[in-house]
């Protein structure tokens, strides 16, 4: 097993976390915060939009099973990368579309992936996803980990998370556990 890590933000981390947890080869998904300028922020601080952080997930995966591009494909499928600082009902820079790369290889691969999306006109509008180096990842509070698994019938989950999980199961059936 060859373990790698990738970090993505595409709106509320509950949605992105649940989508990636569906994939064979993903060994861990941790919700957290990155891309800001306050050390060890709290959920409340991040939600207030004052720390500069985005809600993100850190995905640990077996690259013998999944390629980084597989993760990018899922990521760009389960959220709208053309809306600035918004995903569905969640509005603010903390919900921005962002890929935080861990090394130059990831930076080059995500840039090429976005270029390919743009060149084939995958979306009606331009992709506004930020591509930035990961400086620091802060794990979110425990009550935000595996949120959809713990609260599948909570209103936000049924309206926003469940459709993303269903989309992954349908569009990536060959990669689902």
Number of strands: 8
Q: Which sheet architecture does the biggest sheet show?
A: 6 strands, mixed
Shape: globular
Strand content: 15-25%
SSE pattern:
EHEHEHEEEHEEHH
What is the radius of gyration computed over CA atoms, rounded to a whole number of angstroms? 15 Å
Q: What is the CATH homology-level superfamily? A: Peptide methionine sulphoxide reductase MsrA
Q: Which ranges are low-confidence, i.e. pLDDT below 50, for 5 or more consecutive residues?
A: none
Number of helices: 6
- The number of domains is 1
Q: Which strands sit side by side, in order, in the main sheet?
A: 7-6-1-3-2-8
Structural class: alpha+beta
Distance between the termini: 17 Å
> Which CATH architecture?
2-Layer Sandwich
Would you state the CATH class? Alpha Beta
Q: Mean pLDDT, rounded to whole units?
A: 97
CATH topology: Peptide Methionine Sulfoxide Reductase, Chain A
Helix content bin: 25-40%
Task: Describe the model.
Helix 4 links the parallel strand 6 (97-101) and strand 7 (130-133). This protein has a 6-stranded mixed beta sheet with strand order 7-6-1-3-2-8, covered by helices on one side. Strands 4-5 form a two-stranded antiparallel sheet. By secondary structure, it is an alpha+beta fold. It has one domain (3-175): Peptide methionine sulphoxide reductase MsrA (Peptide Methionine Sulfoxide Reductase, Chain A), CATH 3.30.1060.10. The chain has 6 helices and 8 strands, in the order E-H-E-H-E-H-E-E-E-H-E-E-H-H.
């Amino acid at each position: 097993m060859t373990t790698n890590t990738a970090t993505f933000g595409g709106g509320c981390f509950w949605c992105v976390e649940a989508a990636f947890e569906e994939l064979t080869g993903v060994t861990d998904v941790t919700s957290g915060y990155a891309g800001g300028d306050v050390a060890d922020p709290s959920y409340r601080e991040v939600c207030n939009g004052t720390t500069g952080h985005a809600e993100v997930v850190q995905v640990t995966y077996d690259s013998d099973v999944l390629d980084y591009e597989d993760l990018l494909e899922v990521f760009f499928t389960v959220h709208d990368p053309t809306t600035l600082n918004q995903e569905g009902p969640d509005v603010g820079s903390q919900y921005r579309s962002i890929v935080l790369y861990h090394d130059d290889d990831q930076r080059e691969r995500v840039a090429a992936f976005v270029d390919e999306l743009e060149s084939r006109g995958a979306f009606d509008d331009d992709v506004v996803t930020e591509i930035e180096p990961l400086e620091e990842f802060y794990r979110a509070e425990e009550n935000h980990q595996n949120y959809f698994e713990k609260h599948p019938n909570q209103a936000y989950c049924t309206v926003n998370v469940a459709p993303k999980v269903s989309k992954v199961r349908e569009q990536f059936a060959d990669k689902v556990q």
